Protein: Lipase family protein
Amino acid sequence: MLISVNRLIACVLALAFGITLLAVSPWSASAGNPARDVRVMAEDPGEWSGDFYAPPSPLPEGEDGDVIRTEPVESGNAQVTRVMYLSRDAHGEPTAVTGLVVVPETRWDGPGERPVVAYAPGTAGVGDDCAPSKSYSDLLLRPLLDRGFAVVQTDYQGLGTPGDHTYVIREAQAHSVLDSLRAAQRLPGTGLAPDGPVGITGYSEGGNAAAAAAELAADYAPELDVRGVYAGAVPADLSVIAESLDGQYAVGFLGYALIGLNQAYPELDILGLANDRGREFFERARTVCAGEAMTAFAFTRTSSLTRDGRPVAEYTDEEPFASVMDQVRIGNIAPEVPVLVEHARNDDIVPYGQGRQMARDWCAAGAEQVEFRNIFSLIPLFSHVTAGLSAHFHSADWLADRFAGERAGSNCGRF
Structure:
């Protein structure tokens, strides 16, 4: 009975986190004609091994967002292209990131050029097989595609490609999202304008990435015409998440965050804090997708994983962790683009105060177009999930207004 319930949990959560677990077919292979189907930057297509997710070594010279290679994907109602593009990690070092670009077949009949929306996916896991671009479904993209928007969905750093996924690491997430927009606009054969309007949306882990991109867009990608950013259920402060997830059914996501911190900041020596059970937890978490993490780690107490018996949250206000917690926290930089932040009051994974405090911090820092709203979620159980389903439609409607030229509102000081 417990297994059945856990499987039900995983399936329900899949809808909110963008995990393609339910009757989703893998990408169609196109390895038969790599020279024709693949555009490779600064490497000989004839020498490409055929493993799409293995970046060339060394990485080609180019600008952030330049496309390294592409591969078409069969789809009945859109032009879908798998891409690898240049980006940067949390420390500004070049890296290769993969994702997909989806252009609907419907003609764009709105004002100006067809917009491109960066869809920052929710938690899929940190194992390479969890990369969203390895299994295509338009289920969560449909509200955007139905409005005629092109969509680019990043895998983030380390999902599919070498190295661990830098899960909810602010700068790495932002770079992956912003460079995905550059890659989409530079991708040949799509009809997308290289300087057309763009938007960003994400929920949960995707909300973290979208909010981080909103903070860094002006400095990192000033040429992008960002009309608006939607950020839902943002895990903005990992020190709070370390406490709220501990012992809960989604504690595996805390494991993902530790893996992300370990990848981006190896000097923290996170494994040095773990006992044998903690090392086993860490090593297994780095290979599994979110559905399996739900069944494997549910209700684990992190105090049972550390050598000194303290929960993970107790380390976050000590050095060297405290400085890193501040570095990855979102809310320190006022976005220069319109942002809508939404959160459910009864969110059972990411505490409601996370999103509200982040938006308040932005307002206090001088942001002029920040709006915070509550997402209504009637069911207390899985409220994070049910609110996430609504968020996808809210974000599409809000971005449509931005692309139509309507000015975004602000309720700073009133929430």
Q: What stands out?
A: Confidence is low (pLDDT under 50) at residues 1-40, 42-47.
